[in-house]
Amino acid sequence: MIFRILATLLLFAMVSGCSLHQPNPVELSFEMPAQYEAGEDDSPATQMIERWWEIFGDDQLNTLMADLFEQNLDLERAFARLRQSQAVFGSARAGQLPFAVAEGQVSRDRSITGFVADNHRVALTVGYELDLWRKFASRTEAAEFEALATSADIRALYLGLSAQLADLYFLAVEQRAQLVLTDRTIVAFSDTLDRVERRYQAGLVDAVDVYLARQNLVAAQSHRPSFEAGLAMAEHAIAVLLGDYPERGIAGTIDVLPLEPQMFAAGLPADLLSRRPDVQAAFARVKASDAQIAAAIADRLPAINLLGGLGRSRIELITGPAAGEFWNLLAGLALPVFDGGRRKVEVERRQAIFEESLAGYRQTVLNAFKEVEDGLVANRTTQDTIASLLEKAAATESSLRLALDRYHFGLTEYIPVLLTQASHLEAQSQLLSARRHLVADRISLAKALGGNWMHDELDLRLNPEQDDNHE
Fold first, then answer.
1. Maximum Cα interatomic distance, the chain, rounded to a whole number of Å
2. 3-state secondary structure of 264
3. What is residue 318's predicted lDDT score, i.e. its pLDDT?
4. Pairing of strands 45-46, 263-264
5. Looking at residue 145, what is its pLDDT?
6. Which residues, 6+ apart, have CB-to-CB distance to 238 below 8 Å?
7. Nearest to residue 151, comparing CAs of 235, 259, 277, 266?
8. Strand partners, 383
9. Which domains, ranges and CATH numbers included, belong to the chain?
């Protein structure tokens, strides 16, 4: 009877493997909108290009990006993790295949009568566990999804690093622009101080005007160290991103920010799921956890092992050698009877892991939409801020010119000049900061929208010979 049942199971396994686990659906917890809430914008938008940083037309930035993708140490670590996940996948896939072991044995036996016998034995043993319930297939699927998730993590890292580098690069540009503005202001304030001192020496103004003029000059000079420090730290951060020791001058010498960088088209919300690598990584991990549930369920079911051996032995006797071939074939049935509930609890644990990863996937999607919505709002409001600051800078420039003229003609005291000089410097500095923030908003939106250019970088890193062949 037992042999009959065993034969039936073997036949069933030959026909098809099956799983008692039905894959869990992976669905969002909300209805996806047809368009972004903040998508209506009067500003001109360009279609999203793959290598988004190229819209700035900055050769130095393009060169730094190429160095980043080649030298960054976080990428080195990520590719090492990818190789680990691929090795785990290969190991899991190997578990679906039979194993074979070759054995050889040589021995000599001596009895108390002085009889000596030499034994020679060679055998090949082959074993295989039938994947009746897709236990090994499910583990392989889980490992494959984990490898896909790790690959998506690398693409997300490419995206994040590119945004980080561009943001630091234009921060350095802004700090240089602030230094240029400060130096120009120091020259202007020094000229004003010189004029006030000449008027004081001529007895036309009081000493307080000289002190106020010096106060303005010293205030402008006090801004310079902070901008120098900001430039140094930005360049240090860029150097470290490129895998180098912190150094100065690595980000070029440009000190003019883009006045109106191109705006990216947001596209449709449905497109975001295929453009965001972090979303794809989260989805792959949900599928991996679901496959692990199937493997845990299959581990509670009977297992059939086949073991076969073929060999040859030779014994040297006094009467002559005795040699011959041998073989064996075994089939074993293992049925879990009692394990204290360990396998049952493992299924429950895997189910909880799936629910956790599903919630994480949904949260990742929501965060992706939030980042796009925030990016669209930030770009629009920063543009409005720049428009206001342009008007403010024009107004303070006119006020300063008028205050200086009135002071030189002796129509007013120096305090209005002091106030308008400080206001004009502040307005110009705020305008530079706002323009840099607009560039940062463009960068954040590009990161939020994702892309597919990272696939090319990933393939190039994994298959460098493709680039050599292309050249």
1. 138
2. strand
3. 59
4. parallel
5. 96
6. 64, 165, 168, 169, 172, 250, 251
7. 277
8. none
9. 21-96+134-299+343-470 (1.20.1600.10)
CA dist 410 and 403 (Å) reads 10
Amino acid letter for position 209: D
pLDDT of residue 237: 97
Q: Could you give the count of Cα atoms lying within 13 Å of 310 in the half-sphere of its Cβ?
A: 2
CA distance 19 to 293: 11
Rg of the chain over CA atoms, in angstroms? 37
> Which amino acid is present at 50?
E
Cα 101–Cα 102–Cα 103 angle in degrees, nearest 5 = 115
HEC string for 30-63? CCCCCCCCCCCCCCCEECCCCCHHHHHCCHHHHH
Residue type (1 letter), 228: E
Q: How buried is residue 372: exposed, middle or buried, by Cβ count under 10 Å (0-12/13-18/19+)?
A: buried
Strand-pair partners of 317? 320
CB atoms closer than 10 angstroms to residue 389: 19
Paired tokens of 365: 């999607």
Residues 6+ apart with CB under 8 A from 389: 427, 430, 431, 434
Q: What is the pLDDT of residue 437?
A: 96
Which segments in the chain show pLDDT lower than 50?
1-3, 5-6, 9-10, 12-16, 42, 470-471
Q: Give the list of residues 6+ apart from residue 430 with CB closer than 8 angstroms, or none.
A: 389, 392
